[in-house]
Amino acid sequence: MNVTDVIAHILAEEGVEHLIGFPSNPLFDDNAAEEAGIRPIVVRQERVGAHMLDGIARVTSGEQVEAFACQHGPGTENSIGGVAQAYAESAPFVALPAGYSRSKTNSDPKFSSLINYQHVTKTTEQLTDPDAVEETLRRAFQAARTGRQRPSLVEIPKDVFREEVDGVDYTPTSSTRPAPDPHTIPEIADALLGAERPVINAGQGVHYAKAWEPLRELAELLEAPVATTLNGKSAFPEDHPLSLGAGSKSEPRALNHFLESADVVFGIGCSFTKTAYGITVPEDKTVIHATLDAGDINKDVDADYGVVGDAKLTLEALCDELRDRLSGDSRGRFDEVAAEIEDVHQEWLKDWQPKLTSDETPINPYRVVYELNRVLDKDSVIATADAGNARDFMAPFFEVTEPLSYVGWGKTTQLGYGLGLMMGAKLARPEKTCVHVMGDGAIGMVGMDFETAVREDIPVLEIVLNNFEMASYDTPFSGHYADHAEALGGYGERVSDPDNVAEAIQRGVEKNDEGTPVLLEFLTSKETELSRPDLA
């Protein structure tokens, strides 16, 4: 066997179902992946392939660790943004870019993945010894799966792919879950039970640990409201009486209202990174920070209590402790807290109702979000919104009720990220309606990869808010994106009448159910008002 065949065999052993990326790479070119039972998917632009793998990881709670491959040189240069995005969002996959031949790999100015990817991957290695292929890939998969999950990378010089090795005897890797220090649990229980107005902030770690039930139990035991990060959106049902929604640049009014008046803030499965796209913990709050990554504790926010451990194991330990102490007794404040949330929420919705139900033309983008929220079946949807205004319109007003039904993100995000996310989500969850909302800037970055959805039979629902400029930058753009979708073999529809928005969305879902990728282009106004925390 040569190294290419051994790698394909290892990928199959690790449960890889999709190899996504771009030729030239022998894993594609020699049909090695396909012969090993792995579906190869070639994208139009490399970073979109990385985004697809990111989406698969996110909607499977990090359990499905897939593989990426691309050409040496320009392929690896094009890919770095997608890998960096997955690193920022803690999404695991294994990248297997080709490298220049060993005799040329260190010759300037040739691009080296080994050197250039080290800051955006969990581990980075170069396979120079063909006999080390098994141990090298084992390390990559083990790192990607374990602890805080992130991409791992193995660069394979072109000439190494062709080297012969003596068979393969590979054992797949496994992941572990660290438990919290049991001595810290009673202290945290004391702080939570002693709080008059605790607030829980749940992050993506709740998704990866599948800790949705113990999170809900903790909230109900404490009778405490729950906010999520944008990455954690859908970790707590937003139709629950204790839900505050997701913290972001634009967010529901109740979130900031309760955060300002909180005495204790309990963060679970979150990084508490200071960012414009997350919550800001006010001064003089008691902060409890429970996370899988010890490096996040006291990184940006001073924590009075720190706990390192898997979110589910941490929440279960806390629930056990609180259940014993409460002995089934209610704290007696559930109805009061729920009523306060509802009062603030309804007042907020009343203020925004004119935009959400606007009949103006061009269509107000909030009307599109309102109809998406009303029309889509929340039990069968996975949604995301792209960077910029699409995110800010969607995050507060698109309500999600099922775990993993929204793929959010934090920190900094590339335009066009959501198309790959939803194509990956659809591959992993074909029974779901996978919806992506974006603007003119985003489709300009990745629009040609709508053809990938058509060619690979990945029926996603793309929503383009076309206001003929890039967000609020007053940079004019133009294009007929519905015609673009039709030209690429999908279904496209341009909508200019607000009364036709809901019906167009329904038609889009029906076309998806028939197996057709859909792009709905809504001609929208240049809306700039956001539900900002400081204005809420």
Tally of structural domains: 3
Described by strand count, sense and barrel closure, the largest sheet is: 6 strands, parallel
Q: Please state how the strands of the largest beta sheet are arranged side by side.
A: 2-1-3-4-6-5
Distance between the termini: 64 Å
Helix content: 25-40%
CA radius of gyration: 24 Å
CATH architecture of the largest domain: 3-Layer(aba) Sandwich
Uncertain segments of ≥5 residues (pLDDT<50)?
none
Class computed from helices, strands and strand pairing: alpha/beta
- Number of continuous helical runs: 21
* Average pLDDT level: 96
The portion of residues forming beta strands comes to 15-25%
Kindly report the name of the CATH homologous superfamily of the largest domain. Thiamin diphosphate (ThDP)-binding fold, Pyr/PP domains
Shape: globular
The CATH topology of the largest domain corresponds to Rossmann fold
Q: Got a strand count?
A: 17
* CATH class annotation of the largest domain: Alpha Beta
Structure description:
The strands form three sheets. The protein has a six-stranded parallel sheet, sandwiched between helices. Strands 9-8-7-10-11-12 form a six-stranded parallel sheet, sandwiched between helices. Strands 13-14-15-17-16 form a five-stranded parallel sheet, with helices on both faces. The protein folds into three domains: 159 residues, Rossmann fold (3-Layer(aba) Sandwich), CATH 3.40.50; 158 residues, Rossmann fold (3-Layer(aba) Sandwich); 179 residues, Thiamin diphosphate (ThDP)-binding fold, Pyr/PP domains (Rossmann fold). It contains 21 helices and 17 strands. The N and C termini lie far apart (64 Å). Helix 12 packs antiparallel against helix 14. Helix content is 39%, strand content 16%. With 536 residues, the chain is of the alpha/beta class. The chain is globular. Keywords: Thiamine pyrophosphate.
